Structure prediction request, 898 residues.
Amino acid sequence: MEELSSQFTYKMCCNSYTIHLIWLSDETLMDVSLRFRREMDKGLCRDTNPTAAVKMLPTFVRSTPDGTEQGEFLALDLGGANFRVLLVKVMADGERKVEMENQIYAIPEHLMRFFDHIADCLANFMEKMGIKDKKLPLGFTFSFPCQQTKLDESILLSWTKGFRSSGVEGKDVVSLLRKSIKKRGDFDIDIVAVINDTVGTMMTCGYDDHLCEIGLIVGTGTNACYMEQMRNLEVLDGDEGRMCVNTEWGAFGDDGALEDLRNDIDREIDAGSLNPGKQLFEKMISGMYMGELVRLILVKMAKEQLLFQGKTTSELLTTGRFNTNEEGVVCAENVLRGLGLDPSVEDCIATQRVCQIVSTRAAHLCAATLAAVLRQIRDNKAAEKLRTTIAADGSVYKNHTEFSRRLHKMVGRLVPDCDVRFLQSQCGSGKGAAMVTAVAYRLAAQHAERQSILDTLRLSREQLLEVKERLSEQMVRGLSKQTHEQASIKMLPTYVRSIPDGTEHGDFLALDLGGSTFRVLLVRIRSGKKHTVDMHHKIYSIPQETMQGTGEELFNHIVDCIGDFLEYMGIKGASLPLGFTFSFPCHQSKLDQGILLKWTKGFKASGCEGQDVVTLIKEAVLRKREFDLNFVAVVNDTVGTMMTCSYEDPRCEVGLIVGTGTNACYMEEMQNIELVEGNSGRMCVNVEWGAFGDNGELDDFCTQFDHTVDDCSNNPGKQRYEKMISGMYLGEIVRNVLMDLTAKGLLFRGKVSERLKTRGIFETKFLSQIESDRLAMRQIRSILQHLGLTTSTCDDSVLVKEVCSVVARRAAQLCGAGLAAVVDKIRQNRNLNQLTITVGVDGTLYKTHPHFSSIMQETLQDLAPQCQVTFHKSEDGSGKGAALITAVRAQRLKEERQ
Ligand code: 0WK
Ligand code: 0WK
Ligand code: BGC
Ligand code: BGC
Prediction:
């Protein structure tokens, strides 16, 4: 009994001794977890990162294996207890198999030429494997805190865990290894990636479990990594997608954040370590220090007569003599005897108890920081409940069974709302390093293949200059009586000879047909010093079936709308002079006549091509018998736009539309317009540049996607230039590129959604939305969801955005090249070295796309440097311009009648 009671009290005082020394309550652990979360934020934040203890290092590992990786890879696994060289074969066919050969090599304690030794081991391994003649890609697991700027460059910040080779800290370990290999000169390898062992562990397990997004090491050292949102990684540019962050949590507390929890033993260990003041959290947890913690506690208790009758031995007093992976009572006796002690049963129990409490503290501290990481991921996903997998490795985690059990349990207690699976890595991080290399290779190969597809849509300056030259040529051919018929660009005379001069006056009706909307307008123009224009308008839609029905139906619909508007404005009886913006190629021999040459855009009403549209509409008015219209002018929307803008800026002599369709007009010298009599003065020419390329002038710039869009359009072979630029087609080009990338397995994991197969489903407005704001990711996601692509990844979204910007950029550049040809023609017409001119512009694409106008202007400036061009965005539409032309004409007619 006595024995028991003394045993009990003995036990009790041992307990209380160590407990007060080391035990951490759940509250304290929760507090540690919150502290660590704050440290994570400091590390992630650009301003506080330099002083943060927990460095949150970017790893440039952005995606986990998707099962398509394959190939043969070398891997190095350095920094744990063992240095391994591995050959990893990844097979993607059917069963997705990974075969590995590996060899462990020693790392001598006082190694002078560190990387020479690594290179020697590598050579030895390759010799053994008979692969010395192969230049294999290599993934390098280097388990120390490193600053990375890319996947294959890694600056060692500081050695940890007993390593301290000189001349390495502050250096790029990849260049050091490459140098050592070069020095040997008997083999060559391609170092593709250098990663931390936590990252390697995450990738190793990620190959089998796609939910795996955390890597944990509790071995010689301790650390964790996890997949963080790029937008939180302030030290890097880019908001899109995720990247793995190596927390380097071993350094938690190096700024004093854990001082209240560290005890004398912890301080003693740190003071005796190779890197005092560093890795303080690690020194409370990892295998390199746990044994020492126990030893120092035993020494302390012995000296306080609480153990071994106060006796100590030189072994017990020797640093590092108590190995970490001993915990059981039985082995406590063996260990203590191994230290020259003669332990009593109580001593063994007390020692086992001390081990228990030390490793429990370690497991619980680990749980506290893991809980912080789990909460970060849950909050990033704005998820109610997080379901995730933690990959774990390291001799403590693996061999110290109680450790992992206690860790799992405490994690469950600290974050009950997270459903966490721990997956112990069976193959070490070498496989993970090979996976990162394989993914890097796959991404590089996919990137190269994607870029080779996108490169077909990228135009060089030389090519754009060529487009300008060829378009200039076609303009001249269109103007010349001889070649006009064959020319693809018709350079149509508009019979608009001058721009408004402010004397215009009166009420006018205007129709604006041909863009995305049909407008009927009442335009009140008042002359005088402050000449003003008041406008009332109503927008009407033109149903697809009317656009593509009979001409009669179309013009009846137009006249119905006019009737509705006149009714609405109470001016049915007025018969005001009317200007008709008809945005299609028309041959005109006078202002109030326009023979439709061909429909473009979505229109193909029958019985109209070759007809005078003024006659067609007058017939419809007659059929309606409700009101009469006084047609004075029919103009193209480019001309209307030029007039509208020149009313504000008299230097405006060019009109540009980039909307559903695209086109331009400008004031040409009469002597150059061979189709019209007279050589003096100028006349506005409707370029109809949409048809540029219809004679094959652009074939060498057309991609397979352009051919597909043209083949599927309702006017194949026509309007080729327009089909590379305008709003009606850009979405379709993007859709076809996305389809092609998906079919090649380069997007959406090769899965095409039914909806994405639907023509016209990827509207051009999506391009503007996707490229518009910084939060494009969320926007892209919702658009892809709308397109039935619910499983798209971040990388998919990034690529969709890139496709949109490449397609829009080409359109803007082609438009810029066309405009450069037009303004340079005007400059040459006027024998000017420098031309200052304004372009009036309108159209949804130009107005809504965030980058179109700036890219177009850059290209124009670059290809027509002798032209100073101002862009005047039309706010009032071309209806106003049509009314102004009508006013000018009406004025002229009045003067002629007087
Ligand atoms: C095995 C991994 C290696 C890592 C090691 C850590 O393959 O990358 O460094 O675990 O555990 P340790 O060997 O330090 O106990
Ligand atoms: C507004 C003009 C109209 C022109 C249209 C072109 O008032 O004449 O046709 O812009 O842009 P879209 O509506 O095709 O985008
Ligand atoms: C290193 C980490 C490493 C960990 C586990 C620490 O000492 O700083 O980079 O991940 O040990 O090996
Ligand atoms: C038409 C042009 C029009 C342009 C912009 C083209 O399809 O052929 O006449 O100016 O679209 O609306």
User: Anything to note?
Assistant: Confidence is low (pLDDT under 50) at residues 1-5. The pocket of beta-D-glucopyranose (ligand 3) is lined by residues 79-80, 143-145, 160-161, 196-198, 217, 219, 221-223, 248, 250, 282 (CB under 6 Å).
